[in-house]
Amino acid sequence: MDKIFLILQLITSIFLIVIILIQVRGQSVNIFGGGGDNFRTRRGFEKILFQLTIIVSVIFVSLGLINAALS
User: Fold this and answer.
1) Mind telling me which residue stretches traverse the membrane in this protein (predicted)?
2) In angstroms, how far is the first alpha carbon of the chain from the final one?
3) What is the tens place of the pLDDT at every residue in 25-53?
4) Angle CA(69)–CA(20)–CA(26) in degrees, nearest 5?
């Protein structure tokens, strides 16, 4: 049973990495690693990606806690 949760956590981690890389690719980065100073709101696909990142990260942490409890 704990192998199922381990595999689910692995799949979730890969999915989380992909979502984060898609978000970072769309941002402007200067030479020191920071983004621009102008504020803008997330709209459309950017907002969906942001909310999906939060949901997947909560699932990832939950699976990690379940794996720790089962071990």
Assistant:
1) 6-24, 48-70
2) 11
3) 655 555 555 555 555 677 888 889 999 99
4) 170
pTM over 0.85: no
Q: Which residue has the tokens 């990260």?
A: 57
Instruction: Give me 52's structure tokens.
Output: 């999906």
* Predicted local confidence at residue 27, as pLDDT: 57
Range 61-67, long-range pairs (CB < 8 A, 24+ positions):
63/5, 63/8, 63/9, 63/12, 64/9, 66/5, 67/2, 67/5, 67/6, 67/9
Sign of CA dihedral 19, 12, 57, 59: positive
